[in-house]
Amino acid sequence: QLQLVESGGGLVQFGGSLRLSCAASGLTLNYYSIAWFRQAPGKEREGVSCISPSGISTYYADSVKGRFTISRDNAKNTVYLQMNSLKPEDTGVYYCATPGLFEPCVLRDGGMRYWGKGTLITVSS
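User: That's the sequence. What structure does it adopt?
Assistant: Structure tokens below.
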């Protein structure tokens, strides 16, 4: 019964910033790793970042290291993705997902059990 809902997408200019939120309902996120994926039109979905249930361990794709930061507030049942220095190649639909209860972080879409519906980020040049 876990539901994930993304928000915070929109249009931003090159070099700008956005913060995405992934809010959970139905279950607490305290024991779930949460990952962010993105997909551009005509491209395969790629893993962006993942955070462990406690927030201590984080993982990033090489393409976003140093620009994106994943964090979580378990009291609010929400995971965030702060995106800075955005580039046109960051454009796409961003999804949050989880591999499931007690499962560790992975950045493979096939490893995810629950997905949000996505939010669109467009970065203009």
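The mean pLDDT is 96.
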